[in-house]
Prior knowledge:
The complex is a heterodimer. By secondary structure, chain A is an alpha+beta fold.
Amino acid sequence: MPAPTPQPTPSLTPTPGLSVLSCLSKPPSLDPGPIQPPSPSLSGSVSASPAQSQSTFAVAGTANVTDIFYYSPLALLELSPSCCITRASARFLSDWRLSADQCIGHQLHLFLEKQIHPSTSISQVHAVIDAIDDAISARAERTSKPINTNHEAACRARVLPVFNGHQLLAITLEWQERPTALIESELVKPGLSTDEAFRILVQALKDYAIFLLDTTGHIATWNTGAELLKGYTRDEIIGKHFSVFYGKDDLEAGKPDMELAICLREGRVEDEGWRYKKDGTRFWANVIITAVYKHGLHVGFGKVTRDLTERKASESRLITAYEESEKLKSDFLANMSHEIRTPMHGMLSACSLLLDTDLTVRQRDIANIMDESGKVLLQVINDILDYSKLASGSFSVTSDIVGVASIIASVVRGVQTTLHPAVHFELFLAPDLPKSVQGDPLRFRQIVQNLVGNAAKFTEKGSIRVKASLQAEDVDSYTVLTEVTDTGIGIPENSTAHLFTPFTQFDVTTTKRYKGTGLGLSISKSLSELMGGRIGYRPNQERHGSVFWFTARFKKIKSLGQIQDWKNQLASKDGSLLPAPNTEAVDLQAELAKVASTRTLLLVEDNVINQKVMLGILRSIGFRNVQLASNGAEAVNMVRAKPVGYDLVLMDINMPILDGHQASSRIRESGINIPIVAMTAYALKGDRERCLEYGMNDYIPKPVDKKYLIRTLAKWLLSKSDVRRSVGPGQLGPPELGLALLDKNRALLEKNLNKVQDPSSVVEVTNEEQKEQPGAESVSG
Amino acid sequence: MYRADEDYGYASMPDFGDHVDNGIFSQILEMDESEGERDFSEPLVTNFFEQAEETFVKMDRALNDKNLDELSSLGHFLKGSSSTLGFNKIRDSCQIIQQYGHKLSVDGTPEADDTICLEKIGEALKSVKVDTAELEKAMKKFFGQTD
């Protein structure tokens, strides 16, 4: 008689050790051979029922229970109460691909441990044991969680505990293969490790196309997301190469293979780009390919694709909107800055006029503050204008000749005057520095000026070193490196990141101490980038201070060699003697000087050298209020802004933007009768007439002779009222008339002059006029 | 080398020969605060030579491009500053360049042939470079600069 332990539950313990013990403790007879009834068989034949069952319903002629069990169409295992396998159905053996020897007589958990798929967890076995325990305690049917088996199926066990009264006779396990719809057998075939939870997750995901490629890039698996995203069904796509998703350009560039190669090398590759669906439409995809290894062996690639079309579209909408608003802002700034600058000039001019008058000490202090603040404000406005132009992209770099060395030298010369006395300048120009190159001299100067100016501003003692060298050279360009090293206050480490950000100064206290917009460096950065260079900062290693550097690329000038040749030759002197200049000594200066301090002149001249000389001459005569305009348009604006603000305009004729003729015409068109004196070099016959034709009143030849200038100025400033009456906008007659008027005035003047001059000088004047204007009807003294 | 120019009363006016109109140039020198420190004239002259150098490069390019208009305007430009400083030889060459750039001969008669104009400009440019180099050297000496 078998004597199974009467207590139903404790016999089944998940602890392997105990189970083994309990199994071994059974008499051998309890573990019968294969396909035998659980008890020593009395009959071994058809009708016998187990003795202990005391079957009351056995009917003669019914099949042997053992056979019924064995041939049942179900995959059955019968366990002893101690969970030793006592019987197995044929279906079980065939499903699990086992022989009877491999299961009968084995402890269930040991058996299952051998049967589960290597990739799955041992806890699956415990789950089955737990289900058995549960079923026994409940004396009811239970179904275990599925386990993955060696024969690549997911099976769950229906546990049927068989009780006779309180005595547990046996436990029957009915193994059910779970429906396989959710199980990716393809996933398993390449031998990739998977977990069912992940498989379900991957399979069910609709927003991501997740699939595996084999080592050659052919598609091995396909999830719902992939089907939805790419439009191919699983059957259509399995086995195809993944390059089918790529566009023509990518294919020509060999991108698919390249991606796999990179992926193999680096383990992973990520790409964003257009991918194509089955119907030929494209979508913007984020693709991540990961190399998949199994036991160190490369088995394929995992590929995850996301559709970013919508995100990309909204991103680009955002960017467009942002750019649009930035541009509007910059345009607005650029326009406004211009509008602000004009009155600003007016204020500054008025202020400097005020400073030239007799003021008390206190008044002068206040006016100086106004003047200084005004200048700072103007600099701010100029910076903003530059910056907004740069930001709005309307800033262009012109192509001109750049004398790198001379620009740097001239900036250094200019800044030198503002230095603290304890600071000295060192200028290093590398010998291989090209003398002249092609680029934008103004912008180059602006950067140098900014960096050198900063260095001067922030350095109170020590030195400022400006070093220019040739960083690189190729067939048609030079890259020039300019470094400015100072021993100034330096820059705190935490501020270096924002140095080139607009509107930042590196700390608030310096803003108070050092005036500035915080735009200079950011403008310099943009400018150097426009010139194909870079800008940067590093601390001064040798001493406390800063090193700012920038590079700019310039085109080479092919004919430069020529210049040098000519320079070196210093060939023989040649040229004819020119007539001696007119240097008559006319002493109108004293008289003019009396009125000069109350007169304001506008000098319109584009050539800086001429500007300087004219300013120098005018100052030496006694004029303190000379405004400058560097082209006709500027002059017209200035005169229109202050129609009675100037007493006389000295107008160069040949100027960019708007020439002297046009400028004079416009001034006259505005109804302003201010005397305009043309200055033109080497006047040709007819030039003078033309000047008059355009509404100018007089004319002085260039180079401007001081004495001649004094006479002319005297004529127009000392007899001002007369002049204003004589030439008005309505009276612009033919040249003859203008000439006649001029001659009339001149005659008047000569008469006046005669009173203060000696006769010889008058002769000189006459001679010169005859010489300069041979065609004009000259007036005799 | 240095001689007192009694006619004009400029004690330290050097002789630059026919390069410089002494009257005009002395006017420039007069604007210096002192003769020891040529604070006005020296940077001005230095600036001029920079300007000249840059203009020559542009002229070379324009000549290469056969751009008569540009040559004329460059000629005019440098003529302006050279004559202001009294650098007559440079001025005269610039005048030639300006004239032929306008397709006019020096005396104002039309010169229709572009090739002749370019040739004349080429010659003038050559000599103006030589003159400029020579003058620059002399000026440096005058201002006591070292090369």
